[in-house]
Amino acid sequence: MKKLDLRLLRMIKNTKGQYIAVLAIIITGIFIFTAVSNSSKNLKDSINDYYAETNFADIFVQGLSIPEKIERELPGTNNIKQADARIVFDTHFITEDKDENVKVRVVSVDKNQNLINKLFIKSGDRTLSNNKDIIIIEKFAEARNIFVGDTVKLRINGRKQEFNVIGIATSSEFAYMMENEQTILPDPQNFGVVFLEENYLRKIHGINGNFNEILIKVKDENYIEQIVDFLEDNLDKYGVTRIIKREDQLSNNLLSQEISGLEMMSKSIPVVFLSFAGVMLAVMLSRIVKKDRTSIGVLKALGFTDKEIVIHYLKYAAIVGLIGGFLGSIIGTALSGVMTNYYLVFFNIPMLTVKVYYYRIIISVILSLFFCTASGFLGVREIIKINPAESMKPEAPKEGKRIIIENIKIMWSHVPFTWKIVLRNIFREKKKFIFIGAAVAITCGMMIMTTWMIDIIDVMFNRHYSEFMKAQYNISFNGFTNDNVLNELSEQLSIDKMEGRTELPFEVENGRESKIVTIIGLRENTDFYGFEDTDGNRIKLPSNGVLISSNLAKSLNVIVGDRILIKSFISDKDVYVTVKGIVNQVLGINAYINIDYLNNMFLDKGIINGVYLNSKDNVKGKLDNMKNITIQSRDDMIKAFEEFTTVTAVSMGIMVVFSGILGFVIVYSMTLMSINERTLEFSSLRVMGFSKKEIFNMLVRENTIMTFIGIVAGIPVGLWLVNYMGETFTTDIYTMAEPVNPISIFVSIILTIIFIISAQLMTYVKIKKLDFMQALKSRIT
User: Which domain holds residue 438?
Assistant: First the structure.
């Protein structure tokens, strides 16, 4: 081994504390990069494979009564490759508990194998050989403890029907099994999907040869928009209510958003860790070079070139980069499997496989090596300026200058001696001061962002279902009915409040921008919605015009007073209406219209297709025998939400730990550096009678001031991160625009302080072990 390499090993050994600290940050950054990017890649590849295996539809056409001949006529026309007609409707799943309101989506399938959206059988058989056979989606079967061979009961067309479970399956259409956009969260205990043989289902449902949905596969995805226009023009006479492209299909849309979020996280968070590791490494090497000034001069005098000496010190940085990159990528790759399988909690993807992406390990090592080497060069570039002759004598000390506070003699004269040392060191070590302050600021900012994300989920959900949407029960009819049904409900239930409503999908356009959303028709003085604008001012539902949610306004780029086009799927009538207000809505994307105004434009007077009601009565039990209705209760949504937040809290806790690691390691390593450089100073203080505890307290005071300033700077950093995350993760399903709770800021500050205090306590061990008397001796190493 070369002499310089032996010296390199000794250098690493002498600075092992700081070296390990930098290594920890690099491993953490690379670990996050590898684990998250691998997970997003695994998830994306698995979804694509699953879609290809099951022939996932490109377009979903929903209608009222579509003739069977359309299924045969569409393939081969206007770039359409395949078409598969089916029947889809929601109904009750009958359980032994009469108070339960369990819904299932019944989907018709071919007896042997459907062309599009094929079922992926997990257990049992695919062939529906008997009219009483049924296949149940896996998540629902698991939640309800249903197995192959069991018997289940459904209410179809007002009658109880009994079926034999012959198979448990998954469907690419329901990988994220949500009932609709309004339910927000999956609830497999109370909502599932079942598959019945097509001809038998038409027979017992009374549809007589027609269908209400067609799945489309296209030859070329570049012509999707033209195909959608063709379908709208040619199928409009069959009561087409909605045409959904794959990208807008609920399950696929949510999966895509999840993958985008993972990809963004894999690019942003590791950069923060690697940047701080790079700065730390540059500072460490610059301090080492400064300390080794005489040794470097001797090496040059012995004939070593600047290049050889620079490379010698760069190896210090390169080794930490290689080790950190390799260990981080290996740990990240190993844990990416756990992280990928974590998504099984939410997504029903049977083909989810974990792969080892060796090229990502190489990329991680190269990325780490680049950051460390580049940072190392910034720290060692002063080597070139060292002259061998001049390096033999001690470096001239910096010119002493008064700090700002010293010029205020009245104040300075009252400052204790130890505090004078603290203040002078802070002002004379500005780079260290800025670096530690920035680390604390980032730590505090990330803590604020993380606690905000924990808070906002709870705030968004509770606010939506207590202040915005106040109905305890949302009853939907499978079709339109007269509002006289309200009288029938009043006779069966003890009701506190009740209103009829109309809820229909429309395409809303503003110039080139368009969006298919649900428009809800409400009574003008509705008791079930508390509309507020984005400034918190109350808004009343107007007699004409429309209120739109804030995320819809952003999507369409409209403001109050603009006129938007509402295109109906149930009639040929398209109407321009004026936006009378923009509603602050955190969950869902909707528009709201006076029900009489909506019915006059598109329906008939007194027509509704749902009811909101508040009641202390046994609503589910008493309405169990009513035909063609579904009941959604607020309690069911709260239960599903509580299960969701349990898993979310774990992931947020991990983020808190990562944030704390950053602050802990940086404060710890920079304090160790300070101790090593100031050993002579501290030894002199010991001779003057200062105890080790008093010296340690001086360091604590220095870091306390820098921590305080870092926390103050971290609050606006955290608010910026909150705004960035809110804009990035806002979707059609939820709007993350809630302000930060002061309690969250307080908790974040406390957590930051805890991590910083932990780092301080670790450095006390170093103070205790220092041989101060030895430092006073003049010696050359």
Answer: 412-467+634-781
Same domain, 717 and 670: yes
Residues 70 and 214 in one domain: yes
pLDDT level of residue 724 (50, 70, 90 thresholds): confident
Report the C-alpha gap between 486 and 490 in whole angstroms: 6
User: Do 42 and 69 belong to one domain?
Assistant: no
For residues 524 and 460, state if they share a domain.
no
For residue range 287-314, list pLDDT tens digits in order: 788 778 888 888 888 888 888 888 888 8
Give the 3-state DSSP-derived string for 522-588, with helices as H, strands as E and coil as C.
ECCCCCCECCECCCCCECCCCCCCEEEEHHHHHHHCCCCCCEEEEEECCCCCEEEEEEEEEECCCEC
How far, in Å, are 111, 280, 324, 652 from residue 371 at the CA level? 59, 11, 11, 28
How distant is the alpha carbon of residue 511 from its chain centre?
Answer: 31
* Residue 129: band (very low, low, confident or very high) from pLDDT cuts 50, 70, 90: confident
- Do 309 and 406 touch, CB atoms closer than 8 A? no
pLDDT given for residue 606 in this prediction: 85
- Residue 188 to residue 59: CA distance in whole angstroms: 25
pLDDT at 781: 42
Which residue is listed with tokens 């038409």? Answer: 202
Higher pLDDT pick, 91 / 672: 91
734 occurs within a structural domain: yes
Identify which of 478, 480, 504, 501 has the alpha carbon closest to the alpha carbon of residue 242: 504
Of 655, 679, 675, 677, whose CA–CA distance to 667 is shortest? 675
Residues 657 and 770 in one domain: yes
Q: Which tokens is 381 given? A: 């570039």
Q: What is the DSSP letter of 467?
A: I
Give a yes or no: residue 626 inside a domain: no
How does pLDDT run across 705-719, given as a tens digit for each residue? Answer: 888 888 998 899 888
**CA separation, residue 33 to residues 236, 353, 659 (Å):** 49, 19, 15
Distance CA 135, CA 170 (A): 10
Question: Nearest 5°: CA angle at 463, between 461 and 468?
Answer: 115
**Exposed (0-12), middle (13-18) or buried (19+): which is 157, by Cβ within 10 Å?**
middle
Beta-strand relationship, 59-67 and 242-245 = antiparallel
**Count of CB atoms situated within 10 Å of the CB of 359:** 7
The answer, yes or no, to whether residue 777 has pLDDT greater than 60, is: no
Using pLDDT thresholds of 50, 70 and 90, give the confidence band for residue 603. confident
The Cα 194–Cα 171 span in angstroms is: 10
Q: List the helix and strand counts (H, then E) for the chain.
A: 23, 20
Same domain for 772 and 665: yes
CA–chain centroid gap for 331, Å, is 22
- Highest mean pLDDT among 264-273, 281-290, 721-730 belongs to 281-290
Residues 6+ apart with CB under 8 A from 375: 277, 278, 279, 281, 282, 317
